[in-house]
Specification:
The complex is a heterodimer of chains A (300) and B (449).
Chain A lengths: L1 H11 L8 E5 L2 H11 L3 E5 L14 H9 L2 E4 L9 H8 L11 E3 L32 H18 L4 H25 L7 E4 L5 H7 L2 E5 L10 H11 L6 E4 L5 H11 L2 E4 L13 H15 L4
Chain B lengths: L1 H20 L3 H47 L18 E13 L23 E4 L2 E8 L4 E12 L2 E13 L6 E9 L20 H7 L4 E10 L5 E9 L10 H4 L2 E12 L3 E19 L6 E18 L9 E18 L5 E20 L2 E12 L19 E12 L2 E11 L5 E13 L7
Antiparallel strand pairs in B: 1-2, 1-3, 1-17, 3-4, 4-5, 5-6, 6-7, 7-8, 8-9, 9-10, 10-11, 11-12, 12-13, 13-14, 14-15, 15-16, 16-17
Helix pairs in contact in B: 1-2
Classes of the chains: A alpha/beta (300), B alpha+beta (449).
Chain lengths: 300, 449
């Protein structure tokens, strides 16, 4: 009986067993980034996978339990998670990760947010007045967030601060070299005209000089409609766009439909780590994005 | 750097010299070692310089972001507000209404053996708006948050504003504790805490109508604790005034009701998640009214309600937006031990148990569209010959209903629903159907599981 109680206690309260920093990331890219910086000193958990639309997540019991144990909650913000993160925070009874505390980090606050508009109305769809939240598609944004994240991890866990600083420096150097390589490789992509399912790629487009000529969604966040798709067919039937892009969690039918009628190649791009078999970490993510675009877009 | 150039020059000279002089093998070895040493030295320096360059570049990037942020180039919150209005709470309004048809008149609707109390009762016949809810919420300060739901309704042709919920929650308690005080929906059961705009059917299932007056809402204090484990484990308890059905009567000078609840939950793979729980409500009722509003039955005594819940949600890859499925079921056991006063009669000792359950499933095959079905049922012990012919006598067969619905949501903020109910719970079997709308504007809080 005593043994059972002890076993149960260990199973239920593994808190004392490890003093690693518990990091709860809303999206896989921030979990991957925290792991790059913190290496073996952190336990990272991502609330979503690359195959899930991060706008629509159930505030599940398992996520509440993870937030309860977290030392740091890191999310894209800009209202991307407004449908579920507030419910997690309210139910999790963890005062250290409430907004405004050191344990709460909203990544998009530290980058230049695009498409911010103060004057919004819901007739425009599910838009984000604070700006487009899909900031991770520009590696320069990832670098900026890495810096804040590394500093925050060091502040929360001062004992291991030197290793976080070293991890951050090491990552920053490798990331800078990788950015240079991606930018060189992606030169032919400048001026490419893309049709995207949702406005998920504005930061990538700004980075590589890609033109977004249309969206499959007529109204942001709502499923593409037949009327809108046939309008796109007539508009782009004689060219005018080079590639149709969707994220892995988006319905493939609209982009396939348009591709079949216009002859424009439709591709899937990983929006975050795990979005494709190749995108196993942050470096591989951008390798894969660039390579997939290069393969799909005709160039010399 | 200058030393470096010097060393290179020396090395070059040495190489030239040694090459022309035809040095011996030992000398060549020494020179090779010196070259290797120099090369390693330089590589280390270059790496160090590159590192410093990278850090400087990072700093510059961040500095420019910081500068943009400071000058307002980076999107901050759209803030044309100034002064006091900057602290305005989030405001949301929820509109609900329906057109509801009965084959038989709902005027005398009652479920034999289960006189309803509180807000429970049939949906208003014909066209009508339901409750319009005004929701305000904001952080009070760094340790408290506040929530107000004011329900606007028409009662007998007059507009009434009712404080439905008004609670304060402590957000800075240590060790996984959370506390709420004020007026709130009790944490018992699964549907009890859900706002009506999140229900999957127009009305509450029978056990909620019969045992909780639709939803148990009361004034009091709630304490919750969440275990620091990856398995979700929540324990909670409440002390409540006991002024509303099924409590009723403010026994014990206004501390007449308490509850306990425990919930566990988790995921199964990435596709499925579940929640299970048990709860217990203990009330000491005094002259608790139920049945006919003008001529109610009055209950005095102990009334307890034990319930168990199970919820299962599924979506391929956990991608809720495209396709999803939800199953939920709850079981209830109620025990009333005391006395019922029949209108115009004496108090009669009553000690009987009643049970109820429902199960429902909702499937979203494509975005926007959902279909669902529900069965809800009640059963009662026979309270004895003294109650023969009264509203409390056990029904001949268990009251039961079958409901089907289909709804369409243009966005998260609008929903239109068609529902059909085959009612075998009322005085005679009835077919009911109708249309319902649920729309919301303004701030819309995140939904719980």
């Amino acid at each position: 009986m005593t043994r059972l109680v002890i076993a149960l206690a260990i199973a239920l309260f593994p808190v004392a067993a490890s003093a690693d920093l518990e990091i709860f990331a809303c999206e896989p890219e921030w979990a991957a980034l925290a792991a790059e910086i913190g290496a073996e000193h952190v336990n990272t958990f991502s609330a979503t996978t690359a195959l899930q639309d991060p706008h629509y997540i159930q505030a599940r019991p398992s996520l509440i339990a993870r937030v309860r144990r977290a030392d740091l909650v890191v999310c894209s913000g800009a209202q991307l998670e407004s449908g579920w993160l507030p419910a997690l925070l309210q139910k999790a009874n963890n005062r250290d990760v409430m907004p405004g505390k050191a344990g709460y980090l909203e990544a998009s606050r530290y980058v230049l947010r695009l498409d911010a508009t103060g004057n919004v109305d819901r007739s425009q769809g599910d838009i984000h007045p604070l700006g487009n939240p899909h900031i991770q598609t520009n590696p320069h944004n990832v670098a900026a967030v890495a810096r804040v994240l590394g500093e925050r991890m060091a502040a929360l866990d001062p004992v291991k601060a030197p290793s976080y600083q070293a991890g951050l420096e090491d990552f920053s150097i490798r990331w800078r070299d990788a950015i240079a390589a991606w930018e060189a490789r992606a030169k032919p992509l400048a001026g490419t005209r893309v049709i995207t399912h949702h406005k998920s790629w504005v930061y990538l487009e700004r980075w590589l000089g890609i033109d977004e000529v249309a969206n499959l969604e007529a109204v942001a966040g709502l499923p593409p409609t037949a009327t809108h798709l046939s309008k796109l067919t007539s508009e782009f039937g004689d060219g005018g766009a080079d590639v149709i892009v969707r994220s892995p969690y988006q319905d493939e039918r609209p982009s396939k439909w348009l591709s079949e009628r216009t002859g424009i190649t439709a591709i899937v791009l990983p929006l975050t780590v795990g979005g494709t078999a190749e995108a196993v970490d942050l470096f591989a993510l951008f390798d894969d994005i660039v390579e997939r675009l290069l393969r799909a877009v005709p160039h010399e | 750097m200058r030393i470096g150039i010097f060393r290179v020059a020396v090395l070059a000279l040495v190489l030239v010299y040694s090459g022309t002089a035809g040095a011996q093998e030992s000398e060549i070895g020494e020179l090779r070692a010196a070259v290797a040493q120099l090369r390693a030295d330089y590589e280390a320096r270059i790496v160090e310089l590159e590192r410093r360059l990278a850090v400087a570049e990072q700093n510059a990037t961040q500095a420019s972001y910081d500068a943009q942020q400071a000058t307002g180039a980076v999107a901050a919150a759209p803030s044309s507000v100034s002064g006091n209005s900057a602290f305005n709470p989030a405001i949301g309004i929820i509109f609900q209404g329906q057109a509801w048809n009965y084959q038989r008149s709902p005027d005398d609707y009652a479920v034999q053996g289960f006189p309803f109390g509180g807000e429970a009762g049939p949906v208003t016949e014909g066209l009508g708006i339901g409750e319009t809810e005004l929701i305000f919420n904001a952080n009070v300060d760094d340790k408290f948050t506040a929530w107000l739901t004011a329900a606007l309704a028409l009662e007998d042709g007059e507009a009434v504003v009712e404080i439905e919920e008004a609670w304060i929650e402590a957000t800075a308690l240590p060790a996984g504790f959370g506390a709420k005080f004020g007026r709130f929906f009790s944490g018992i059961g699964y549907l009890n805490g859900k706002h009506s705009h999140t229900w999957d059917f127009v009305d509450q299932p029978l056990p909620y109508q019969a045992f909780l007056g639709d939803q148990y809402l009361d004034d009091g204090v709630q304490l919750r604790w969440l275990a620091p484990t990856n398995l979700y484990l929540e324990l909670g308890g409440e002390v409540l005034q006991g002024s509303r059905y099924p409590a009723g009567g403010s026994a014990h000078s206004g501390f007449g009701s308490y509850s306990l609840f425990a919930n566990v939950g988790g995921d199964v793979g990435t596709d499925s998640s579940w929640l299970a729980g048990v709860s217990y409500l203990d009330t000491e009722a005094r002259e608790r009214a139920s049945g006919d509003e003008d001529d109610p039955l009055l209950f005095d005594g102990d009334s307890t309600l034990t319930s168990a819940l199970f919820v299962w949600k599924w979506a391929p890859n956990g991608n809720w937006k495209q396709r999803n499925f939800k199953f939920q079921s709850e079981l209830f056991w109620r025990s009333n031990d005391g006395s019922y006063t029949i209108p115009g009669g004496p108090g009669l000792p009553y000690d009987a148990d009643q049970r109820g359950w429902y199960a429902q499933a909702v499937y979203q095959p494509v975005p926007r569209w959902r279909i669902g079905g529900r069965i809800d049922s009640l059963s009662s012990d026979d309270p004895g010959a003294a109650f023969a012919g009264t509203a409390l006598a056990a029904p001949g067969s268990d009251p039961q209903r079958y409901s089907f619905m289909a709804d369409w949501s243009n966005s998260e903020f609008s929903r239109l629903r068609l529902q059909y109910t085959k009612d075998e719970a009322g005085p005679s079997d009835d077919n009911q159907w109708g249309l319902q709308y649920i729309h919301s504007i303004g701030a819309h809080g995140a939904h719980t599981f």
